[in-house]
Write a structure and sequence with these properties.
This protein is an alpha/beta fold. Among the domains are: 3-90, Alpha-Beta Plaits (2-Layer Sandwich), CATH 3.30.70.100; 110-223, Oxidized Rhodanese, domain 1. The chain contains 9 helices and 15 strands. A hairpin with a 6-residue loop joins strand 14 (242-243) and strand 15. The longest helix has 24 residues, at 276-299. The two termini are 19 Å apart.
């Protein structure tokens, strides 16, 4: 049975995130929704999958309780649930920049609609920055964009401070997967005194939905997503990657043929980085999972 995949976020003041967590968790379980959602004083950030006939009720609940609007949902279809379970967490930040004084609810950059994005970043005076992590950028990005080579979004502010003298007076355009990281990054740059700051409305997923498969697109490659699909292509279909269960790195088919790949144990990126004790633990875990699968198949 096909599932609806919803991605959403909203910078909005939540007085009691823990109370909101309890209400949201109860409602989503009642509507058989799985996914990962983060709540904090600054708002909500999440992605979930559910039956299509329940999606309108879930969107309505999110709009009523978190001030989301219908156009702020990124929505597409998957062949099955792209999450194994429901996880709702309360954190200090719904996307971690490490600067609690930055408030995207108060000030952000200028949105660029997906249909106008390619033309905008083609302008000579525009510097395009990919605010995602280095491994995500390597899987796919917009042609000509700058890769800060960060391991986590938390490092973005430090990278900017190192580059600010050269970039501060430029016209800056930023993008990310669903829009939340680049939106917070624009708020940070505005606070740093950058006047012309722009970001892709709804992120790469919204761009794919609107224009990503056009031959004129400046996008190259796949987009990493934080669910079991690993990546999606410009048609919002699952890409040809899967995760290494040991280090969570995206792997292509050719990577699985590498001599250092052992399913559930290691890939060529993490081979040799784990202790013998950790490898034994991973092999025992793999064995127990296979035994559980075998018992389930016999009972069906």
């Amino acid at each position: 049975m096909t599932k609806t995949v919803l991605a959403f976020y909203k910078f909005v003041n939540l007085q009691n995130p823990q109370e909101e967590k309890e209400k949201l968790t109860s409602f989503l379980k009642e509507h058989s929704t799985v996914g990962t959602i983060i709540l904090g004083n600054e708002g909500i950030n999440g992605m979930c999958s559910l039956d299509k006939d329940k999606s309108e009720k879930v969107k309505s609940f999110l709009c009523q309780n978190f001030k989301l609007a219908e156009p702020e949902f990124k929505e597409n279809i998957a062949d099955s649930n792209v999450f194994k379970k429901l996880s709702v967490k309360v954190k200090k930040e719904i996307v971690t920049l490490g600067l609690p004084e930055i408030d995207p609810a108060a000030i952000v950059g200028t949105y660029i609609e997906p249909e106008k994005w390619d033309a905008f970043i083609s302008e000579k005076e525009v510097i395009t920055i990919d605010t995602r992590n280095d491994f995500e950028v390597k899987l796919g990005t917009f042609e000509g964009s700058v890769n800060p080579k960060t391991i986590s979004f938390h490092q973005f502010s430090r990278w900017w401070k190192d580059k600010s003298k050269a970039l501060k007076n430029k016209k800056i355009a930023m993008f990310c997967t669903g829009g939340i990281r680049c939106e917070k990054a624009t708020s940070f740059l505005k606070a740093e005194g950058v006047e012309e700051v722009y970001h892709l409305k709804g992120g790469i997923l919204n761009y794919f939905d609107k224009v990503g498969n056009l031959p004129t697109s400046k996008w190259k490659g796949d987009c990493f997503v934080f669910d079991q699909r690993v990546t999606v292509n410009t048609h919002l279909e699952p890409g040809d990657y899967e995760l290494c269960h040991a280090c969570r790195s995206p792997l292509r088919l050719i990577d699985k043929n590498h001599e250092h790949y052992e399913k559930g144990i290691s890939c060529h990126k993490c081979f040799g980085t784990k202790t013998d004790k950790k490898i034994s633990s991973l092999r025992e875990r793999k064995k127990q999972i296979e035994l559980l699968k075998d018992r389930r198949s016999k009972n069906e």
